[in-house]
Amino acid sequence: MSGFAPHAGIPRKSRVREWLSVLALLAYISVVLLATLSPTPLDQGYQGSIDKVLTVLHRNGVPEWFGYNKLEFSANIFMFIPLGFLITLLLPLKIWWLSIVFCPALSGAIELSQGAFLSARFASWGDVASNSIGALIGIIVAVCLRQLVYQRDEKLIELALWERGRSNQLRIPTS
């Protein structure tokens, strides 16, 4: 009887995906918090390397107007894409939209913490905006993925029911 839901005769829902997602989310949030709440900015001491990256980008077709500020804005967008994605996948389907509230709130809390407690860092509403854009991209991808999986599951269930009905029709009555 283990592995089956009581009284239903159907297998229990596997929680492996959810636990792996929770672990990935916790690990990712830890990385984000370490990066954003470290006492010194991550780019401190790396200006030469950043300039080299920008030079390579410009040499390979990225417009000259794409400088350090645009690079930082883009990095902030990319940093929050996985966060929006993972949170949206973990929330129950009926309340996935809470990720639209949670991600910008987390970004705002990070920026307020930087401004209040970290003298070498500064709070920026631009960072909140870029983080929110990234989270929204991740949220959209997660919602689309959930919809694709739902449609696939509906087709598989329909096919299984059709095959079950067909096999019942092919049985020869024994009485």
From TrEMBL:
The keyword Membrane applies. InterPro entries: VanZ-like (IPR006976). The chain crosses the membrane at residues 19-37, 73-91, 96-117, 129-149. It comes from the Bacteria. Residues 40-145 form the VanZ-like domain. Pfam families: VanZ. Keywords: Membrane, Transmembrane, Transmembrane helix. The keyword Transmembrane helix applies. This is VanZ-like domain-containing protein. It comes from Cryobacterium arcticum.
